[in-house]
Sequence to fold (189 residues):
Amino acid sequence: DAALLGKYRFFSEYWSQSAFHVAAFGGLELPTGSSKERYGDVFLPFSMQPGSGSVDAFGGVVLTLSIARFRFDALALYKANNEGSRDFSEGDFFVLGTSFAYRFYHAKYPGPSASAKVGLSWRQEDPDKGGDADENTGLSELRLLAGLTYHPYPEIDLVASVEVPVYGDYDGEQLGLDVRTFFGFGIRF
Fold:
């Protein structure tokens, strides 16, 4: 599925080589991936489908404090998953996260910059509902994040990160989530 995201910074405070920002964001995840893939005559489980078959909304708030080459971030995010294919809905989820970053390379503006980041993220996910929902869904987990960001220009973001589970409480008899990797490309305007 593809997601459309908008972000609006509604508060900013600036000091010498420092700044504090508060922004709200929100968006929609659109059902662009197939949700009716089969193995022979049987539908694949929802966790193996490329798409959800539903339009899902998400939103939250981000706080950022930058002091010279250091940056501190805090995030709160909620995603409401709607009913999609075959009357199925993934569980809604809520995320709280915090991170610390250090910009280890910085050329004179508008030159490139690069930073390293570490952080913690807590996720609470409701069980799936309807259709062929698996009763062994839903979780609470804490993850450790490490990543690198590169800005070849101020408007371009290239991101690579890895998340490692530190603690997990998983409903039913499901397997816990494993290491997760993320690669991203962003354009600011």
